[in-house]
């Protein structure tokens, strides 16, 4: 009957209109997951840049990525809370910048927690390959957690905790 054909056409058009709208305008939850995944990748990338600055002995690059009031617990501080950049500057000036041997670091199993729009925490295993003073290839491992805070659109490392081997191989 014409009425049933008209009803079928209406249902067909309505169904495809809904599918078209759903495809071209995904629900807000999809934006959240997409945004969340991109933000997590951003945190992993800035962490890799920070590690690269350390490996290259580039204190200037390191200070651009870290908050001036950076706090840390790390093996080199012997269990003490370190605040500011002076402690780290010592290692850059006396060890890292003088190293002309290759250093390669891999971040294993990075896990990022997003804490609102402007804060994040990343935990990972840091596997560092280096050549020691006798010319032998070595590896060291540490477990690290870093807290990031975004200010004026820029991510800054405000705190980190390192367990295990010293982050900078003492060659």
UniProtKB/TrEMBL annotation:
Keywords: Signal. The keyword Signal applies. InterPro entries: Ca/CaM-dep_prot_kinase-assoc, NTF2-like_dom_sf. Residues 39-166 form the Calcium/calmodulin-dependent protein kinase II association-domain domain. Pfam families: CaMKII_AD (PF08332). SUPFAM superfamilies: NTF2-like. One of its GO terms (molecular function) is calcium/calmodulin-dependent protein kinase activity. Residues 1-24 form the signal peptide. It comes from the Eukaryota. This is Calcium/calmodulin-dependent protein kinase II association-domain domain-containing protein. It comes from Poecilia latipinna. The lineage of its organism: Eukaryota, Metazoa, Chordata, Craniata, Vertebrata.
């Amino acid at each position: 009957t014409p009425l049933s054909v008209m009803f079928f056409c209406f249902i067909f058009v309505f169904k495809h209109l809904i599918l078209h709208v759903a495809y071209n305008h995904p629900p807000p939850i999809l934006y959240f997951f997409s945004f969340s995944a991109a933000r997590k990748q951003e945190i992993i990338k800035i962490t890799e840049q920070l590690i690269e600055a350390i490996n290259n002995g580039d204190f200037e690059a390191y200070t651009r990525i870290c908050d001036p009031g950076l706090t840390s617990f790390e093996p080199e501080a012997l269990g003490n809370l370190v605040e500011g950049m002076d402690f780290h500057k010592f290692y850059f000036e006396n060890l890292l910048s003088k190293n002309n041997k290759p250093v390669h670091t891999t971040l294993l199993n990075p896990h990022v927690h997003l804490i609102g729009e402007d804060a994040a925490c990343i935990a990972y295993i840091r596997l560092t390959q280096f050549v020691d003073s006798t010319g032998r290839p070595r590896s060291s491992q540490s477990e690290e957690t870093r807290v990031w805070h975004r200010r004026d659109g820029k991510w800054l490392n405000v705190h980190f905790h390192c367990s295990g081997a010293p982050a900078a191989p003492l060659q």
